[in-house]
Amino acid sequence: MPSFRTLDDLDPGQRLLVRLDLNSPIEDGEPQDNRRFSRHAATIRELIEADHRIALMAHQGRPGRDDFVSLSGHAQILSGHLDHPVDFVPDTHGEEAIAAIRELEAGDVLLLENTRMCEDELPEESPEAKADTEYVRALAPEFDAYVNDAYSAAHRSHASLVGFPLALPAYAGRVMETEYEANTAIASRAFDGRVTMVAGGTKATDVIEALDAVGDRIDTVCLGGIAGELFLRGAGHPVGYDLDDADLYDSQWEGNEGTIEAVIAERGDQLALASDLAYEDDEGERAEIAVADIDEKAHSYLDVGTGTVEEYAEIIRDSEAVFVKGALGVFEDERFAEGTVGVLEAIAETDCFSVVGGGDTSRAIGMYGMDEADFSHVSIAGGAYLRALTGEPLPAVEALKAVAE
């Protein structure tokens, strides 16, 4: 059981300040619907049914970036998921926000403006420093309790995440609770059979950190993506190099060469490396080549090959638990989705405990018509999921634990 308080410990009819993570892709200035809205809607629906008066906080983008926009559009999307009005106020903690909060009745839902439009929000500081900001001091007296449902932002030490637990009774929402339990299972649960990690993506450092943290709890790591190609280079194959002016491989190799080679030397029996790779041929079609037949890197490799997919699928079918972090290829292009989709399909067909995490990877489930119900847990977290795998503490989770104790 988690060592923080949950909604099960919360009395009905409270005035609640609830932190969500609704950070979304922005197209033409408008937020796009995604899995986070539906997940958080379940928490809010439960709070509505318990006659709480609910004010929501969330962030979008960062100052100076194109995706740094108001949350007015997010309120509309969330309202659609709830089939319940979500009012919006273009203010984070000023007079307009306070007035709207005080007008809330039982079952009302209000979304405050983008937390990152408040100067107190962003700097990474201690919970004590954040609790002493004007932001927290202005809002906290208006509420009976604080609920953090933003697990995917829990790796940040921002005011809306770590300051309010020191100023109000603090609870975890359902998304926070389920994400925490699933994503820490690799460290907290005992599995009798094989435990497998599927690790890919673009950053070798992420994979290395995960291997360092969970090496003794993982039997096999199936590697792919840019990270997988760099490990092939470490094993002596002529891949994992940049072509043209790209900067995907060489700089990462320079920063991780010794560690990659040490991991291969010390844990080579744990690593499953790709036996073939896919690339785009001169006709724009998918082509494949066995790694053993590569004499010099002449193509950009965009996916693992079908032989590798079959090998990885066989490992998965023999596993009691599978954790996925990172895509094995450029699955957004249907030609190069076989690695990522093939592995996910193998997991879905296997009676194993499975967690699929890392933002983009979980997106492939919906893109290719798979059912989330076929996986034990599909995480909406990226950075927080990786930190959970590597055993690093999550500031927002630690804040909930500290006040519970």
For the structure shown, list the relevant keywords.
405 residues; alpha/beta; Rossmann fold; 6-stranded parallel beta sheet; 38% helix
Description:
This protein has 2 domains: about 5-180 and about 395-405, Phosphoglycerate kinase, N-terminal domain (Rossmann fold), CATH 3.40.50; about 185-375, Phosphoglycerate kinase, N-terminal domain (Rossmann fold). Helix content is about 40%, strand content about 15%. The chain contains 16 helices and 17 strands. The chain has helices spanning about 35-50, 70-80, 95-100, 125-130, 135-140, 160-165, 175-185, 185-190, 205-215, 225-235, 250-265, 305-315, 340-350, 360-365, 385-390, 395-405, and strands at about 15-20, 25, 30, 55, 85-90, 110, 145-150, 170, 195-200, 220-225, 270, 275-280, 285-290, 300-305, 320-325, 355, 375-380. The strands form 4 sheets. The chain has a 6-stranded parallel beta sheet, sandwiched between helices. The protein has a 6-stranded parallel beta sheet with strand order 11-10-9-15-16-17, sandwiched between helices. Strands 13-12-14 form a 3-stranded antiparallel beta sheet. Helix 1 (about 35-50) crosses helix 2. It is elongated. The two termini are about 15 Å apart.
SSE topology:
Elements: E1 15-19, E2 26-27, E3 30-31, H1 35-49, E4 53-57, H2 72-82, E5 87-89, H3 95-102, E6 109-112, H4 127-131, H5 134-139, E7 145-148, H6 159-163, E8 170-172, H7 174-183, H8 185-188, E9 194-199, H9 204-214, E10 220-223, H10 225-234, H11 250-267, E11 271-272, E12 276-280, E13 286-290, E14 301-304, H12 306-317, E15 319-325, H13 338-349, E16 353-357, H14 360-367, E17 377-378, H15 383-390, H16 395-404
Parallel strand pairs: 1-4, 1-7, 4-6, 5-6, 7-8, 9-10, 9-15, 10-11, 15-16, 16-17
Antiparallel strand pairs: 2-3, 12-13, 12-14
Helix pairs in contact: 1-2, 9-11, 9-15, 12-13
